[in-house]
Amino acid sequence: MKCSSPVKFSALIILFLLNCTNVNVKANKVGEKSHEKEINTEQNKMPTVQPIPNSIADLGEGPHWDVETQSLYFIDINGPTVYRYDYNEDKTYQTKIENETYVGFITPIELQPNRFAVGLMRRVAVLEWDGRSENCKVLNTLFEVDKESGLEKNRINDAKADPHGRFFGGTMIAKLPEDIFTMTRTGNFYRWQRGGTPTKLRDNIGISNGLAWNTVTKKFYYIDSPDLEIKEYDYDPKTGEISHPKVIADFRVNGSNPGFVPDGMTIDKDGFLFVASFGGSKVLKVNPNNGKIEQEIIMPCEQITSVAFGGPNLDILYVTSARINDKPAPAGQTFKITGLGTKGLEMYKLKTIAIVENILDKRDFLLKKNCIQSGCNYVLQNKRNNTSDIRIQRIKMNKFIKYVFVLVILLIIGKGSNSASNSNSKEDSSSSSEESKEMDLSVESIGKESYADIAKGPHWDADTQSLYYTDIYGPALYRYDFNESKIYKCSIPGEKISTTIIPIDGHPNQYTVTMGRFLKIVDWDGKATECKVNRTLFEVEKDHPNNRFNDAKADPKGRFVGGTTHQEDDIFAKRESNLWKWESGKEPTVIKGDVGVSNGLTWNMTIKKFYYIDSVDFEIKQFDYDPDTGNISNPKVIHDFRIEGKRPSFVPDSVAIDTNGNLYVALFGDNKVVKVNPTTGKVELSIKVPAELVTSCTFGGPSMDILFVTTAGKGGKPEPAGQTFKVSGLGVQGVPTYKVKV
Q1: Cα of 668 vs its chain's centroid, Å
Q2: Which of 174, 575, 668, 670 is 20 to 30 A off residue 676, Cα-Cα?
Q3: Phi then psi for 446, rounded to 5 degrees?
Q4: How far apart are the C-alpha atoms of 476 and 467, rounded to whole Å?
Q5: Span 52-68, mean pLDDT?
Q6: Regarding the domain delimited by 442-728, which CATH topology (the fold level of the hierarchy) does it fall under?
Q7: How far apart are CA 724 and CA 717, in angstroms?
Q8: Torsion 571-576-582-585 (CA) sign
Q9: Is 2.120.10.30 the CATH number for 48-338?
């Protein structure tokens, strides 16, 4: 069998995947099921209950076991604090969410390490935390619920991701009255999925709590605590719809209050439900088929709040608790229960982006990822003839079978690629001839008021839900208020140039603005027509008075990083500019010299890479990035825009990055933004913009799924040239831009 180089590369990737992940192969048709339900009602041996270290919380809740990091995440609602218990280290880390009152839940976000969905009052936000430091950061809001009048005092309580990565969660009044059984029920229960708005599934909720899914029987289980019941619903995995509620367990004793309320809930591999009893000092194992309590696990404190299975084998039950009204120790700790004789199911992560992984040769094969109850499935599909669908399940498999699998894959690829080799023998790597994906994109102006002679430096601010940018020779600053759909603009008296604007961390209404060779602080309330220079932070390149700053951003640690350019008519005339970094309290330093026109810059923190564009080089360079120092090293060209070595009719300008690591580059002079895969160097998508001089781009919007694109109207270009545009329908989310620390 003769393999082309893409096939060899695909095989290497498959080998890598298989050696990193224990898998098993089933040559079944996609959609074929092999689940069996086994109910074991035998009593287990006496379980062992132990606290995990440093886990004390006022109101511990929301445990989530993350298989990838072998960690238990949980919260203190009243902290508001997030915890991570590292199983391998037997150590607990915590961070407080500043400027918030409550945190209702925590769920990791799929494909975005160190990012989590959290409930903050009535909104679901994205939290960034490395799982170790004392500092975390709220990046943006995904959506908000209970917006109706009279529900302002509600907050999100328990919530989880369903088997397809949708949000399921409910609300309650933030401060409970003494009698929760007669209170006004203002809570609601919601579902949300990426790209959409929240859907209200149930209203008249008292205290929205436990939720669990059985994907074998297609059932959803739910607890509204004051009801003292577990309800079972039919669950549609495709749509997330729930229907036909039925009470399957009633905790009342002879119709009376049992002395506790059911709280959080989880499910084991056999379909049994484990329920925390708040006020009952126990965890209850419930048989959903008959409603009977099969087992009571006595806990060393009264207020038991929630449960989740975890550990390397998913056979440890983690239990959170509370110490409300100064309950004595060990109240408020999180416990681990071993010896239950059962295992739980892997918990799901929230999906905020579309998942399509083009790991194999994109012309012929597609490797799609889909997570279900038993693990993550990868479907290898021949796009040309829709044959040879193979499902790979993440369960144990010995090395011999792994290599047999690789041979089977190579045979399949060989058969598919040979049949198409005559018509696909040559591939053009230039951006002008690259095939673009067919997507239903919307490109529209944010308004005629967005016009600038040369718009530059867009920055999305999640706190104000606003897009900031500049007009270089205005000089002027702009703010597009997303919620108001309104544009504000201020002039800067006494200045000639303003190229970038970056909000200052912890200082609302203050920004760093690059003006000529200076970085200055500007005061602006975001609405006034005139703004004020507060002070100068530093000056660079005093020996080159004709130079000026061009593009600049804050790096992931809050350092200023920006480069300069000369102001000659011929952009290729000089290379006397530099790329600078600066952090508060220090002098600016050069991290790259010999620069022509410094432009696009962005970071991928997952792989610790920095991407940079010097426009006159017609390249994207990748550098190793040291987060601790901000230094860059080992440059490597990952994409060359030249066509057969010749200059194209455009220059690459600024760049943005999505959560998959793909780069979006503005092409000045070519009416487009192109999406570049930094791994392959290929252009995967061209986005047409109704203006020739495209200057910059950045992701923004409430869900970070809108690409904002700035343009230039200089030289009398006809409108809409010079306006700023928003591109939606890309099916991805961007990486939030950072604020500068001063």
Answers
A1: 30
A2: 575
A3: -80, -5
A4: 14
A5: 97
A6: Neuraminidase (2.120.10)
A7: 14
A8: negative
A9: yes
